[in-house]
Amino acid sequence: MTTAERVNLLVPAEVVPRLSIPETAGATPAPIRGGDLFVRGVPAAVAEQWIERNPGVYTVSRRPVVRRYPARTYTVAAVLVLIVAVQAVIVPAVGETGPFWVWLFAPALAAAGITLAYKSIPFGHVRFARARG
Questions:
Q1: Which of 63, 12, 21, 65 is nearest to 42 (CA)?
Q2: pTM score
Q3: Where are the bilayer-spanning segments (predicted)?
Q4: Which residues contact 27 (CB under 8 A, 6 or more apart)?
């Protein structure tokens, strides 16, 4: 790595109290929900030293996104909302025709279900909330 190269680091919550970030590093630390710390723009040489001295610190390509709930919660919610979206089409189609705005529920529910399903996908930069217990 060249000295001009800068990398991004993810510091887990367990390591944050032990890590001292030198002022001369030119890094920009930003807290992430859950207690982790995202450090942007660390010189490569300094990053190598941090990784060697602090197990658990590693490089990342982008800022992690933390989801509030575990992936399973998003999956279950997506399935339920999509079932309700299908019912929002079937019930008015089979029964009496109600007001036209009833038909607007189906696309809104489908969009919500697709959004929840997308949030359940564990991309590399997505971190889910830790289980409480």
A1: 21
A2: 0.63
A3: 71-94, 100-118
A4: 9, 21, 39, 40, 41, 42, 46
